[in-house]
Amino acid sequence: MTIHIDNLSSGYDRHPVVHHVSGSFADSSLTAVVGPNGGGKSTFLKTLIGFVPLMTGSIDMDGITPDEIAYLPQKFEIDRTFPIKVIDVVQLGHWPRLGALGRIRKSHKIEALKALEQVEMTTFAERPIISLSTGQWQRVLFARLIVQRARLILLDEPFAAIDGHTTHELMLDLKRWCSEGVTIICVMHDLNLVRDHFPQTLVLARELIAWGDTKVSLCSENMERALELAGKWTESSEVCETNGGERYAR
Amino acid sequence: MEGSGMHVDLLADPAMKRALMGAILVSLSSAPLGVFLVLRRMSLLGDIMAHAILPGVAAAFILYGMSIPAMSIGGLAAGLTVALLAGIVSRVTVLREDASFASLYLIAVASGVLMISLHGNPQDLEDILFGDARSLDDNVLRLMACVSSLTLLTLALIYRTLVVESFDPVFLRSVGGKSGLVHAVFITLTVLNMVESYRAMGTLMSAGLMLVPAIAAQFWTHSLRVMLALSVGLAIIGSVIGLLLAFTYNVPSGPAIILILGGAYIFSLLFGPYGSVRARYFPFRHLSR
Questions:
Q1: How many Cα atoms occupy the beta-carbon half-sphere of B154 within 13 Å?
Q2: What is the pLDDT of residue A126?
Q3: CB-side exposure of B248: number of CA atoms within 13 Å?
Q4: How far apart are CA A236 and CA A230, in angstroms?
């Protein structure tokens, strides 16, 4: 299983945020997506999961169905004051198999509890989510990812505002999932963390700067170029002539 | 013992019995909807919907007189039209959804009031705005029973999706859940319940039975199930006491019920265990860990 991306452009209101990206994610690879703010990292993930439509190009998921993709957005998108218990959130990971009406059985709950055990949150199972700290909450969301049993996991800055100890443990979880055959694509901000843990890195600054071995991708020349390109979005852009600005269906 | 004698008399009154039955039916389905409205930060939408049904009710009243089925269908049509228009306006123009709702519902109320006052008499206007629990007949009760049953059944069907859509809509979307459909069904149920309750509560007050118990319940629990049960319980108790007072002292039933519920709300706001004034400013001694 290899995900091939060919000439991908996507964005909002005719303005491409991500421009003409091509490359591929190998099976069971662990790839960091880095780049300046506004460089299109989140949009790139949202395009992969189909939230943002393609303007050009195509994505070949190589047999991965939408049910097998898990996506964790930046944390402010979830209402953490909602009255729901930790275990119930984790059990939502069964959604691809149970849907809106399927009955939650004992085996489902046991699987959810095991996932909580892996992220060391078992004692919190019956607590309301409003009582959790940011780090604990992120562990719960990781437990839900475990229950989802996805083949492709897309994470948008999962370690923002998380302490070093928790980050380290969650990072180990990511690596273990990769060794178990999951492909992970992760938007990252902390370049030291990327250098320490991610074999592959994709540098994005509205267009592709580098994609490959982390050491090569993160060389200073690439990072400077990324910063330089990041500011070039304007309201009155010309129509992009590369590939005729055509639309392709995904 | 004079007091208890009075209550026995009240319960022997068939109009009172029907009013109680109606209020309980409305409480059963409205209060859970209110909990979701509050949790989804859409409380004001409930209020807006209660007003938006007015022109439809008024038009049906003018065309068919005090016909409950006609007025219900008219109210439902008007409420859904306002919801739909507000959605379209906010997508097509620069107006946000709350602003387009505000302008549309004010237009709806104004046209409704104008229609009734041009064609009816002041008593009709008062009945429609404030409701009259004394006027519930068996047909209205049957309609209420149908709406409440339908609401609870539908809520059970969409429960999981509605919960996820309320607290983590991006997750729902990522697993392919039907968020748009569930939202539309939820709005329809809300309007349907407003239409159900306006005969007893009046269009001005029908949002109250939906929202006030739900808001009060927020202060007592962090469990959704308990919150739902509590809001239904509060709604029933509030409407029973409110109706008894309304029949005893001959005051309008809608405001009586809402004021009793308002008392429960103020008590919860002051003394509830979660996020209340008491919990915030006079906490119990902290725990050992």
A1: 22
A2: 95
A3: 16
A4: 16
Q: Which two tokens stand for residue B23?
A: 């209020």
A106-118 helix and A134-148 helix, angle to the nearest 10 degrees: 130
Strand A3-12 versus strand A54-60 pairing type: antiparallel
For residue B20, is pLDDT > 60? yes
B132, B74 in Cβ contact below 8 A? Answer: no
Q: What is the pLDDT of residues B192-242, one digit of tens each?
A: 998 888 877 777 778 899 999 999 999 999 999 999 999 999 999 999 999
Q: Which of these, A214, A223, A167, lies nearest to A194 by C-alpha position?
A: A214
Helix (H) or strand (E) holding A54: strand A54-60
Instruction: Round to whole Å and give the CA distance between A50 and A8.
Output: 12
The 10s digit of each residue's pLDDT in A48-89 is 999 999 999 999 998 898 889 999 998 778 999 999 999 999
Q: Are A72 and A137 in contact (CB under 8 A)?
A: no
Q: Which residues of chain A have pLDDT under 50?
A: 244-250
Residues in chain B whose Cβ is within 8 Å of chain A: 39, 157-158, 160-161, 163-164, 166-171, 173-178, 221-224, 227
B174 contacts A69? CB cut-off 8 A: yes
Q: What's the pLDDT at B229? A: 97
If DSSP codes are grouped into helix, strand and coil, which group holds residue A21?
Answer: strand
Residues of A with CB under 8 A from a CB of B: 49, 51, 66-67, 69-71, 73, 77-79, 82-85, 89, 92, 95-96, 100-101, 128, 130-131, 148
Would you state the pLDDT for residue B123? Answer: 77
